[in-house]
Structure prediction request, 373 residues.
Amino acid sequence: MQDLFDKIYKNKGPLGKWASIAEGYFVFPKLEGPISNRMMFNGKEVITWSVNDYLGLANNPEVREVDAKAAEQYGSAYPMGARMMSGHTNLHEKLESELAKFVSKESAYLLNFGYQGILSTIDTLVTKNDIIVYDIDSHACIIDGVRLHLGKRFTYQHNDMKSLEKNLERATKLAEQTGGGVLVIAGEEQGVQDQIDVYFATFAKSLASTGAFIAGDSEIIEFLKYNMRSQMFAKSLQMQLVIGALKRLELIKTRPEFKQKLWENVNLLQSGLKERGFDIGSTQSCVTPVYLKGSIPEAMALVKDLRENYHIFCSIVVYPVIPKGLILLRLIPTASHNINDINETLDAFSSIRKKLEKGVYKQASKGIEESVD
Prediction:
C-alpha cells in the first residue's frame, strides 16, 4: 500500500503541472479596481472581458447603495441556520415569489450557490432507474451532478437537435426497461419557457451577485425544497444578498436599456469577429469563445502579449477543458463596454492571430513545456 498523498507529488494533474509558471498571471490573476469595462492588472489598465457582470449592475450606484444599507442593517451572518430550521424570513419568501413571476412559473426556491444548487437538483430528481440526457459541452456543475447519478446517461452534441432526438430515443427505450423516467438537461433555449419543468438560474451573471434559484410547478418545487440535501443542511442565503437580489431584479424589470446595451455590444463584438474570419463556434449567449490552434505554451505567450502589449484581458482555456491543440480565448461582453473597447479588441485579435500563424509565440514559448515535465 502507498501513502494516499504520494500520487499528488508524482502527478499534479494536467492543469496543476503548470502552476509554478502560471499561477498569479494566467490562472488566479488579480484584477483590481471597480468592476467595469476597464480595470487594473499587473499595474496596467486593461479592457476587461473576463467578468460576468452582463448588465453592468455590479458597480451600479443604486445597487451599491442597497447592498451597503443591507449589510449595515443585517451584517453578514443573518439569518443563522438552515432555512428549514431557523434561517427562513419573509424577504426570502418575497424574493422567491418575485422570481417565480419573473420566469412565469408557479413557485421558486432559493439556492445558496449556482454550482452547488444545480448539482444537488440533478441528484435529487433522479434515481438509479432514471436516465439522464445532457449536452456534451455542459458546464462542470452539470457534469458533476450527472456523475452522482447511479443510472445510465447519454450525451448529445452541443446545440444539435438531431443528436438530442437520437439520444432521447435511446434513453426512452432504456427507461421502458428500467421502469424509470428521463431527465433532459439543456441550456440557453428560448421561447419554450412553458415546456421547462424545472427552470434553473444563477445570480452570478446578470444579477452580479451570489446565489441561484430553481422554479417550476408548486409540487415539484416543494419536493425539491424538502429533499435537496445541499439546502436542507446548509446555512440560509444571507440577508444582504436577498435584499440585493430584490433590487437587482427590480432594475432588470424596469430598466430595459441595460439589456439592450448588452446585446448591442454582444452583436457588435461577435459580428466583428466573424467578419474577420474568427471561429466563435455556435454561441447563442453573451459568452464569446474565440478558437485558435496552438499548444499550451503558445497560449501562454499569446495571452501575455495580449495583456502586456495590447492591454486586453480575457480568460484563456486550454486542455484538458478543451481538446489538445486548441486555444480558447473567452470574451464576455457586458453593458459596460463601449465601441472603443470592441474596436481595440478586434484589432488586437487580428494582430495576435498573425503572430500565432507566423510562429512568433511558438518561438517565444520554447522551453516552457520541458520545464514543467
Notes: The first helix runs from residue 6 to 10. The mean pLDDT is 92.
